[in-house]
């Protein structure tokens, strides 16, 4: 399944067979994706549309996490907090009958401002401090949401409906919602795609690779970490807006610690530093609990932990790197070097060697 | 006044639990350079082992001792078969591995023993003693003293024994330690085992109060991480002091600052943390480290 989903969307720069580099393919692929996305809501059942919309919501949340963690290399355990914050802002704004565009802008800006504040403090410590500080966000966020019950409705939560399909369009509500998710999510994905391909993306990659090299090139690791975290928070806020659009209800439980970890697992399993991986991560986040609940609900956490560890061991690039790993394995097979090795990507697993062949460089990230 | 003293003593006791987990994190970090987010989860698993044994009518002290042995083995096994691959690589990947381990352990505990709260018998009586006209709970004093005792034993192990010397050598420079013939890999396993033992002691001491659930130590982990940042990753003494400070301050804030109250007291260490990070990023007691390119 992963292969089918990744094939049309993978970019021309990825190693691929020659047909994908032809100009007409480069033009036709995006057109095809747009066409499929335009038709999709019309042909699916209500349940399929709702599932797809939820995948869209969490794909955006995972994308935000990818900006700070996949592309900039700063582990964040607080992404769900920004989703929850955005959802609360949206719900409150809708309940006060504010203009929906204003609500959307606030749902981006307020989480971004919160993210900026957190990052300004957390990024001052190098290494893993961001992970250690952001783990507090969901754990403080839940009691905080319960406490501020004037705005959040306390433990009861808030519900809001604001996406009835416009009259005369002939669309059902679920179809209209899915169109909105595709449109807003699509714009966010496109913007992020350009962000990580451009100047900022290269700066993020250097900060991830080696902070000292980045600093020596005039790229302040501190500033770019704060920037990446703020952008991730803003995208988290957008996903919170979409969350209200689709699920129409939020409570303190939305931003629980468990969900935060699931989001991180979804990102790693989908594929770090990969746009397609974010989509796969969103799908994983929504579909796997659905599947495991059918088997045994108490197994969900166990399976998620196990899958995460297995992926880290055999496929560190996540599901998005599966086609490349398979191609490499096949090429190795063809080269006649004996049976194919398990599909690891050695370039991204510096720790895969035995302890005897440790890299000579000092550990980084303790400055 | 009596309330104040009681709050401080209770704060020291919860602070000791945070201190034990924080110290375990520092121990693992100094040996392998990574932060183990599953430290609390491993301690919960040990507490469940002790709980299962007490249900088989094994005496509580024996059950806790058995869970401590179990933890040592668990820590060593986790180091050998899970973490070793990731130890000298990208620290961020290793952190994600420990988060996966936390999810897995929580999942295993929830699957085997359900997510419901279980009663865990207390090692200390629930009475209070009167001291200078102030009544203080024995459990708080007992918890604090037990953890301090474990810390002193560990400190002696590190400073006075050959094993401790070898462990310190590995922490300072694994390559040189290997060149001088130390079994680095086995010592790393011992280091992880000792850290897990610290966690197990904390888990057994705090379980009666929190009641046993798979997520019992999630909050304690957050406090411990705050203590680690406040004290500085390089300073075990600083971490313990920071953990006590957090325990006492959050208890006092919960009672004397109406806006915070009991539900928001977890925000206290983080308000503290933000102030400290802005003023003194290396932590209160940590040293600035310089990295060569």
Using only C-alpha atoms, the radius of gyration of chain A works out to: 21 Å
Round the mean pLDDT of chain B to the nearest integer and report it: 87
Q: Pick out the low-confidence regions of chain B.
A: none
Largest sheet of chain B: 2 strands, antiparallel
List segments of chain A where confidence is low: pLDDT < 50 over at least 5 consecutive residues: 1-16, 338-367
Mean pLDDT across all residues of chain A, rounded? 83
- Placed side by side, the strands forming the largest sheet of chain A appear as 1-2
Query: How many strand elements of chain A?
Result: 2
Please count the beta strands of chain B (DSSP E, at least 2 residues each): 2
**What summary fits the major beta sheet of chain A?**
2 strands, antiparallel
- What structural category arises from helix and sheet content of chain B? mainly alpha
Tally of helical runs of chain B? 11
N/C terminus separation of chain A: 43 Å
From N to C, what is the helix and strand string of chain B?
HHHHEEHHHHHHH
**Cα Rg of chain B:** 19 Å
The share of residues in extended strands of chain A comes to under 5%
Q: How would you sum up the global shape of chain A?
A: globular
By oligomeric state, this entry counts as: heterodimer
Keywords (chain B): Amino-acid transport, Cell membrane, Membrane, Transmembrane, Transmembrane helix, Transport
Membrane topology (chain B): Multi-pass membrane protein
Transmembrane segments (chain B): 6-27, 60-82, 94-114, 134-158, 190-208, 220-246, 266-285
Main location (chain B): membrane
SSE topology sketch:
The complex is a heterodimer of chains A (367) and B (293).
Chain A: H1 2-6, H2 23-43, H3 46-71, H4 79-95, H5 100-122, H6 129-134, H7 136-147, H8 149-152, E1 158-159, H9 173-197, H10 199-209, H11 211-216, H12 221-247, E2 249-250, H13 257-270, H14 275-295, H15 300-314, H16 322-334
Antiparallel strand pairs in A: 1-2
Helix pairs in contact in A: 2-9, 3-9, 3-12, 3-13, 3-14, 4-5, 4-12, 5-12, 9-10, 9-12, 10-12, 13-14, 13-15
Chain B: H1 2-32, H2 39-55, H3 60-87, H4 91-113, E1 128-131, E2 134-137, H5 138-160, H6 162-172, H7 174-179, H8 184-210, H9 218-231, H10 236-256, H11 268-279
Antiparallel strand pairs in B: 1-2
